[in-house]
UniProtKB/TrEMBL annotation:
Name of this protein: Predicted flavoprotein CzcO associated with the cation diffusion facilitator CzcD
Cofactor(s) needed for function: FAD
Annotated organism of origin: Amycolatopsis saalfeldensis
Keywords: FAD, Flavoprotein, Monooxygenase, NADP, Oxidoreductase
InterPro entries: FAD-binding_MO, FAD/NAD-bd_sf, Flavin_mOase-like
């Protein structure tokens, strides 16, 4: 029995999931389904579930993948819109947590700031900051599962613009959209050419006086149908569950086929995309000036526009595109390198996001700090030399959640394997430390390139090579063996006592 002077032991959980967005909720579902007797909680730094879909409030925010693949495999997508607005996705996530009683697992305003692993105790000690009160607390756990993605939620990316302070109008970053922003009848300039910009322009165009998308470099932009007629028909014929499964398989196949075609035939892909774009625009429109990127398709992510809404805004004259570089902000707007001045009342800097892997979490293993750039990713879900830590990062060339679901399933299979063999510790270690390495996110997007030297690495062979192929991952992660010569298992020699409050959720 501990003395009155000793601090109480920290609450202990079997698994601690960081983040209650689409990945964290999925991880919680699989963990509860496959390991109902394990104790776990989801720690969410904000005051609501949903992650990206609750944080971002800018006009028109929507998915850039169909919800049959972006949604969960275990929960059919019932709405007719395959490309869905944020509020529909958020409703879907709330339905999922309610249906599976996951709400009680979430602890809001709990930001994980540090985690230290003890090999002697075979557990993590996790430092938590209460974002609503500032209070600091600790938890211990056998496993950490990071499900926060890789975007920094408190700060978007805005490059330094000369003369910004001179502009007399309003400057807004989409990540911090003011609820009271009034742009009705006003001149709006959206700086950027990525997914956020091509979403904002058609969403704001009917209300704004006029809106201009100012881009330094064009992007590939493809029109897609907001609804998927075949998927709707499959659900009508085969029912929600079977129809959803068939639509999901079809969507995954379609995404992969498009990506493979663009990789194998980049020149033909460019010509095809240009032809589709030309058909969407007014006759004589300068397609090569505004829709001809200097890179090949999928060197950066393709931008999808539901029902061609961006092109429609251009055809109606509500919106236009300017391809130029900014020299300086002025009192009235933006002076461009060409000498042209764009006058504006509102300027939206849709200039990207910042990456922050593991939410900026400070990791240590037996007192030694973990430098992410020195680690290699194992099966795209663990880090070399770091025990009992898993994470979920989705596909960059397909729907995010296709990968996340498989990773969560594999994680649960790994726990079952350890149980069956009496293991308590699992640590990936490359058999060949001299294996050639490359960035984990091998992607040309600016938000990746800005921090590529801070990210984990991947190897040139399995299981250290991160797959972007869903069908290959189904074989490896869902059906392949968990045991691996480069995955070291052991049993702790000492387990310290830990508190499990009487009201702790254990399943």
């Amino acid at each position: 029995m501990s003395s009155a002077s000793e601090p109480p032991a920290a609450e202990h959980l079997d698994v601690l999931i960081i983040g209650a967005g689409i990945s964290g909720i999925g991880a919680a579902y699989y963990l509860q389904r496959d390991h109902p007797h394990r104790s776990f909680a989801l720690l969410e730094a904000r005051g609501a579930i949903g992650g990206t879909w609750d944080l971002f409030r800018y006009p028109g925010i929507r998915s850039d993948s169909d919800l049959y693949t972006f949604g969960y495999e275990f929960k059919p997508w019932r709405d007719e819109d395959a490309i869905a607005d944020a509020h529909k996705i958020l409703d879907y996530l709330h339905e999922t947590t309610a249906e599976h009683d996951l709400d009680r697992r979430v602890r809001f305003h709990h930001k994980v700031v540090a985690a230290s692993w003890s090999s002697e105790q075979a557990r993590w000690t996790v430092d938590i900051e209460r974002t609503d009160t500032g209070e600091r607390t600790k938890l211990t756990c056998d496993w950490l599962f990071s499900a926060g993605g890789y975007y920094r939620y408190d700060e978007g990316f805005t490059p330094r613009f000369e003369g910004r302070e001179r502009f007399a109008g309003t400057i807004v970053h989409p990540q911090h959209w003011p609820e009271d922003l009034d742009y009705a009848g006003k001149r709006v300039v959206v700086i950027g050419s990525g997914a956020t910009a091509v979403t904002l322009v058609p969403a704001m165009a009917p209300t704004a006086g006029h809106i201009t998308m100012l881009q330094r470099t064009p992007s590939y932009i493809l029109p897609v149908s907001k609804s998927d007629g075949l998927a709707v028909r499959l659900k009508q014929v085969f029912g929600d569950e079977r129809g959803h499964a068939m639509a999901r398989s079809l969507g995954a196949f379609r995404q992969r086929a498009i990506w493979r075609f663009t990789q194998r035939f980049p020149k033909a892909s460019r010509r095809l995309i240009r032809w589709i774009t030309t058909k969407q625009l007014p006759a004589g429109y300068p397609v090569d000036e505004h829709f001809n990127p200097p890179y090949d398709p999928w060197d950066q992510r393709l931008c999808l526009v539901p029902d061609g809404d961006l092109f429609r805004s251009i055809r109606t004259g509500e919106a236009d595109i300017v391809t130029d570089r900014i020299t300086t902000f002025t009192e009235k707007g933006l002076l461009l390198e060409s000498g042209r001045e764009l006058e504006a009342d509102v300027i939206v800097t849709a200039t990207g996001l910042n990456l922050q892997p593991f939410g900026g979490l400070d990791l240590t293993v037996d007192g030694e700090p973990v430098r992410l750039a020195d680690t290699v990713t194992y099966k795209g879900m663990m880090l070399s030399g770091v025990p009992n830590l898993a994470f979920s990062i989705g596909y960059t060339t397909s729907s995010w959640t296709l990968k996340v679901g498989l990773l969560c399933e594999h994680f649960c299979r790994l726990l079952a394997h350890m149980d069956a063999h009496g293991h308590t510790v699992c640590r990936p270690e490359p058999a060949d430390p001299a294996m050639p390495k490359r960035p984990f996110l091998n992607f040309g997007a600016g938000y990746v390139q800005r921090v590529v030297d801070q990210l984990p690495r991947q190897g040139d062979r399995l299981p250290w090579l991160t797959s972007m192929d869903y069908h290959s991952d189904v074989k490896r992660l869902r059906k392949g063996s968990v045991a691996d010569p480069e995955l070291q298992f052991s049993r702790a020699t000492q387990l310290a006592p830990a508190a499990r409050p009487a009201d702790a959720v254990t399943g």
